[in-house]
Please model this.
Amino acid sequence: MISNPLALIAEVTHRCPLHCVYCSNPLQLAGTEWELPTAEWTRVFEQAGKLGMLHAHFTGGEPLARTDLVELIAAARGAGLYTNLITSGVGLNEARLQALVDAGLEHIQISFQDSREEAANWIAGAKAHAHKVELSRAIKQQKVAFTVNLVVHRQNLDHLEEMIAFIEQLNPERVEIANAQYYGWALENRAALMPTRAQLENAVATIAEAEKRLAGRMRIDSVVPDYYAKYPKACMGGWGRRLMLINPSGKALPCHAAEVLPGMSFENVREKSLEWIWRESDSFQRFRGEEWMAEPCRSCERRTEDFGGCRCQAFLLAGDAQVTDPACSLAPRHERVQAAVEAANSQAAVATPVQGTFVQVQKLSGDLWKYRTNPE
Amino acid sequence: MALPTDASQPRLAAGCRWGGTGEERVILFPEGAIKLQGTGLQVLERCDGTRTFGEIISELQKEFGKTDPEKIRGDIGMFLEQLQRKRIVDY
Model:
């Protein structure tokens, strides 16, 4: 008996005004003309509510790029779902924020790239930082839960303490400190993003200290990078076990990156119901449970905890979606991850100096990384 | 942070609300949900921002007549403190 999915990840568009170098969106982005219209999304939320899903996480791209976002939030809330908006905040002013809250928005998560304005704009490839700071004040005036998300990596981990102090004064209830995960654009830019072991050890200590100091005031959730872990992450809580992602064009995916997997086809919500996709589709059953597992997963006692790790990472790093996630220290192809870790530690992490005008700095960074582009 | 005092008025924190259906009551919060039953459910149903912690304790002490009143106070105080750290309850 398959249990019902818990949450819907609504990737409502791939358009985004930011060009973050750690973006985990696919390199092949869905264009505007393929985006699901309002009525289709509304039907998706209704089906999700009936299927017993609890949360709708609006993400993208930048969800605010959809002019019908207020309607979409209202539709999700109307279907009984808890509504969460994951956003850069670009495209949001006080009036639109008010309209979203009135439509039933319950939680807003704003991403910050750094505490220092120039560095933040450099990483995002857009001048967005000052607006985010201003917007955070407006959010605090609203009856909505507020989380700050901070993606950390080689280029900013050296001043994590300063970044936490910066977030503290924005006064969110929660902060998520997430190490960049290497999918999509982040995988392209891995060499520039991967921290050293020393950076990580410092980060763990800094976060532990901040958690203690801020207990009861600000909850800190942190995501450790799986390249440095002994065992892989339970990606998405297991394939087809808890979550369903609908991409901008209406494809139902078990995870953000699943479209990279060769030989798989994914159903579209324009043609099939969420319930059918969850229970019957080949794609959602493909890596569900344990039948598909090879050794060492098959006989490993951790298989019910981490489900063999991430299928996309297995394909991206080992060329085979069926094998143990190479992030696992027991994986036959673990050397692929070890090699990346060794390369990251062969040189000290010296943040590339950010000097010059915004345009100059972006150009000079061309050798360091690729900025995320926008869909056609 | 400290345990609630008698005068504290516990309530769900911003962005947290009841959800689920009839028998399966849950509290929804930004990154998840907790299924509540038994004592946990009885406690949180009373965390309405109006009742004080002292009142909640005395109501529950009546329900669990045979249990040591100080143990009830200690357990419920710790339960609420944990939820407060998770930013699910405020007081």
Observations:
- Residues 69-85 of chain B form the longest helix (17 residues).
- The CA atoms of residues 12 and 89 of chain B lie 4 Å apart.
